[in-house]
Amino acid sequence: MVERALADGDLTAAHAAVADLSVELLVDVLERLNKTDRAVLYRLLPKDQAMEVFEQLDPSLQSALVGGLQDDQVASIFADLEPDDRVELLDELPATVAAKLMRGLPYDERELTAAILGYRQGALGRRMSPEFVSLRLDMPVDRALAIVRSRLHDAETVYTLPVVDRNRILVGVVGLRELMGAPTDSVVGDIMNEPYFARATDDAEEAARRCAELKLLALIVVDSETRLVGILTVDDALGILESAESEDQARIGGTEPLRQPYLATPVGQLVRSRVVWLLVLAVGATLTVQVLEVFESTLEQAVTLALFVPLLIGTGGNTGNQAATTVTRALALDDVSPRDIGRVVVRESRVGLSLGVLLGTVAFVLASLVYDASVGAVIGLTLLTVCTLAATVGGVMPLAAKAIRADPAVFSNPFITTFVDATGLVVYFLIAKAVLGI
Length: 438
Known about the structure:
mainly alpha; CBS-domain; Tetracycline Repressor, domain 2; three-stranded mixed β-sheet
């Protein structure tokens, strides 16, 4: 209904169609519109509602929307964003637009934003909020409560309160519940607890995972000298993990991750996200063709062998992908690390061997019944070998990627499939020549 109204140029009908929608539904509607219609509909929203909607959009969509709005509206929206959200948007904008928006910020907001921009991409400091409430070690509880009340509307959170000394060194943390329940004549140092914290230079994904695992409302962020510089709230941590999970799943599937919702992504961008991987895999698949050429005479002497090629390379690829996916997930959860490569090799080789025995036995029986025992032996032994090899390689590749600081997902399914296809055929034909004597 909204799309039809916008296509007809009926702005009154378009406004009426979204007038009673919640922020969440408005975000869903905007994500489904093209760039021009999105900007038109956004201008129809009341100012307060428009700001809430803008904050809920992905940074890439925010960037696209900025291009369709007037300069004064963009400047107002940009100034109202939280510093960490502002930095995410700046990363998506052209440098000239980003510089112009930064110049239009009030001095204090520009300083907060610049502090976050000073950290490298992917660092925790790039995703933290510098708007927090900190308390002094020797501060009376009643004074601390007064400070918290005065910051209720501009602080990122007041439920987790870092405690610092005179040099802003982090010494503890106190929760709002403990602060409110403490005697008013006591000091903050009497009720504070040992703090959980991370360095601003730490990897943002690892810090976010730690925040989630510890079930913290906020993770305190410090610099190299343990001075308080910011906080990472649990909602921001979950956003980082969701983004990382989407990226891993995309690369495991052989595509580049989309930086905005599917329906809002231009077709050209969808093509670019997939074509590079398809070209890489196509080049890799030439190895399979070359293997078939090398063993062409073997195929001519036993044409039946060609019938089982899809089964063998498919099973090998699936086995390797299963192992790679399992180990990649274990890496993300810190269950394993590159130093565990020996243990992973042993475990995955045992798993692959067990799978090979089961699948090879079934294949031997069926192939023997349909053809003969010699063909069954070739298929059974090949599955045994290929499953063991594929599981081992599939388990090792993500660890090797992590060791060289590459994305484990990139080294997973697409490359494993190509590798196992080629080596699986070599194993297949070598076993066939040995068993069948050809």
